[in-house]
């Protein structure tokens, strides 16, 4: 796992509550006790089982389950338990398990009861000297607890290996003939059951097919007969309905035809009478109306013609008067505008000539004033630069002398502190190696005692089995002897395999011990580097304080020096009262004031 991934997992678990961290630790203990390489399905099932035992409902998107799955997928080459412990170490989370000690037991209650997870963020406070380092520091206690926990996990792995070896030995001593007979009987029974089940299934399917065929034929016949009957009945109903509709329509048509004929005769007589009357009335009315309209039109035409002529004559007279008045006003306006334009052009030319003369005079004044200003500025800057360089050189020499003296003192002090840190590091390394050697010697001694006891029990059991199987006082001893020889060779092979496995486990344990020693050395180096950085920062702070103090003491000298920046120079020029250092801005203000007074006098 890369350091970036380790840091991201550590940041995520630092936000988890205490009970969920305990929950994840119990899940890892369960996965270790299954003696099977964990996968995603096993992790999910164990997590749901543990949640149901605790009485908690699991959500479809549980963040804690997703976190442990991401940790499992992040590094497939190392175990999930080791990665979890590394993440806890990175997040500074201390997990103490009272049931995880040298008497390794596999009871879930032992692991689930006294486990405590605590978040102990320690501030990065370092002493000025390594002599003040205390072994009661929480980080040191956490490293020791992690070491004990890893040793306990190794002891648990050793006990599980022994239990696995016992199980394999029991499996090796099983009767091969009985196993073969049981396998044959199982296969025969399974085949017989499969054949009988297949036959019963075939018979049932055939019977169901016959019943289905009969039911289908019966349903088809009923459907055909029903459809034929309904079709015949519907055809009869349609024919009778059509005949009845035809008879009814014919009777209605005959009655309506007779009625229409009578009504047509009466309508023809009435229409002829009414048309004759209307034509006569209309003819008389139209004749009288035409005569009246002709008389009225002649009178109206004469009146309208006279009125129209009079209206046109009045409009023409008004238009002629308006045009005459507009012509006179336009003539007077054009004449005034022409006179005004001539006067405006003459006045504008005179004003332009005066402004040109004033602008030329002003330009000459500004030109000569700028030349004088540039000359004065150059001379002043040259004098100021020479004086400033001379005084700055003296100040730099004094500062360099003070800094060099202070640096020599700090270098000697750092050299002494580094010697003390090296002595402390050597002492801590010696103590760590001594503890690791004691733990390794005790574990090897206990393992040797266990192996010796196991060999004695195996020899005793072997002698008893030989005496019981050889039947020394009987006649049938050849076949059991051969079987015992075969078992002896099998046991030798098993012993060689387990010896190789024990050797590999010892090598693995020594590798883990080496890794822990390397981690402790890295922690010690990191501690030394932090102490050095802290001491360097303190020295730099002291140097800054000394520099500030020296600046405050020599403030009078600095005030007499020439400032560096243009803004500081302008401030000093404005603050001065001597004629030689009069600022240019004051000269400009005076010149502008004189110009303002002259202009007022001229006005």
From TrEMBL:
> What is the organism of origin for this protein?
Exophiala mesophila
Q: Where is this region: Disordered?
A: 574-603
Point to the regions of Low complexity compositional bias: 574-587
Protein name (Swiss-Prot/TrEMBL): Sfi1 spindle body domain-containing protein
Tell me the ranges covered by the Sfi1 spindle body domain, including all copies.
286-544
Which domain of life does this protein belong to? Eukaryota
């Amino acid at each position: 796992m890369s350091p970036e991934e380790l840091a991201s997992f550590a940041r995520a678990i630092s936000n988890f509550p205490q009970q969920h961290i305990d929950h994840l630790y119990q899940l890892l203990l369960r996965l270790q006790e299954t003696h099977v390489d964990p996968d995603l399905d096993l992790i999910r099932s164990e997590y749901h089982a543990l949640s149901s035992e605790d009485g908690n409902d699991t959500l479809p998107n549980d963040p804690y389950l997703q976190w442990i799955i991401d940790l499992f997928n992040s590094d497939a080459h190392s175990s999930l338990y080791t990665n979890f412990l590394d993440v806890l170490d990175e997040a500074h989370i201390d997990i103490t398990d009272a049931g995880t000690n040298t008497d390794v037991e596999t009871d879930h209650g032992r692991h689930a009861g006294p486990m405590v997870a605590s978040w102990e963020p320690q501030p990065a406070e370092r002493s000025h000297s390594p002599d003040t380092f205390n072994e009661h520091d929480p980080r040191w206690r956490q490293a020791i607890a992690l070491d004990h926990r890893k040793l306990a996990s190794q002891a648990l792995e050793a006990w599980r290996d022994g239990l696995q070896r016992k199980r394999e030995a029991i499996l090796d001593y099983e009767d091969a003939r009985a196993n073969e007979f049981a396998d044959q009987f199982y296969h025969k029974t399974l085949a017989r059951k499969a054949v009988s089940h297949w036959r019963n299934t075939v018979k049932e399917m055939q019977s169901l097919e016959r019943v289905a065929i009969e039911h289908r034929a019966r349903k088809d016949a009923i459907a055909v007969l029903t459809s034929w009957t309904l079709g015949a009945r519907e055809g009869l109903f349609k024919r009778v309905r059509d005949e009845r509709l035809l008879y009814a329509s014919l009777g209605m048509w005959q009655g309506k035809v007779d009625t229409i004929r009578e009504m047509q005769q009466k309508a023809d007589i009435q229409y002829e009478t009414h048309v004759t009357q209307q034509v006569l009335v209309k003819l008389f009315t139209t004749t009288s109306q035409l005569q009246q309209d002709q008389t009225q039109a002649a009178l109206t035409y004469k009146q309208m013609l006279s009125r129209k002529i009079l209206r046109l004559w009045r409009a023409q007279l008004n238009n002629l008067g308006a045009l005459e008045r507009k012509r006179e006003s336009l003539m007077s306006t054009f004449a005034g505008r022409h006179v005004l334009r001539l006067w405006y052009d003459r006045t504008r030319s005179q004003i332009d000539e005066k402004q040109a003369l004033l602008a030329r005079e002003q330009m000459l004044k500004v030109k000569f004033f700028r030349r004088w200003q540039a000359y004065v500025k150059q001379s002043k800057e040259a004098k100021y630069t020479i004086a400033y360089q001379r005084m700055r050189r003296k100040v730099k020499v004094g500062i360099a002398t003070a800094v060099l003296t202070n640096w020599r003192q700090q270098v000697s002090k750092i050299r002494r502190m580094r010697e003390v840190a090296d002595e402390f590091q050597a002492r801590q390394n010696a103590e760590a190696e001594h503890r690791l050697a004691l733990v390794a010697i005790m574990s090897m001694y206990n393992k040797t005692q266990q192996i010796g006891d196991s060999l004695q029990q195996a020899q005793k059991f072997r002698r008893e089995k030989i005496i019981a199987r050889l039947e020394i006082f009987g006649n049938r001893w050849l076949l059991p002897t051969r079987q015992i020889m075969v078992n002896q060779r099998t046991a030798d092979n098993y012993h060689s395999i387990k010896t190789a496995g024990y050797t590999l486990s010892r090598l693995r344990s020594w590798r883990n011990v080496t890794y822990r020693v390397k981690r402790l050395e890295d922690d010690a180096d990191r501690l030394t580097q932090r102490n050095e950085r802290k001491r360097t920062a303190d020295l730099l702070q002291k140097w800054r304080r000394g520099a500030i103090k020296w600046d405050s003491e020599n403030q009078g000298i600095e005030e007499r020096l020439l400032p560096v920046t243009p803004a500081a120079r302008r401030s000093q020029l404005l603050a001065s009262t001597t004629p030689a250092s009069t600022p240019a801005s004051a000269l400009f203000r005076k010149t502008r004031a004189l110009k303002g007074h002259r202009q007022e006098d001229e006005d």
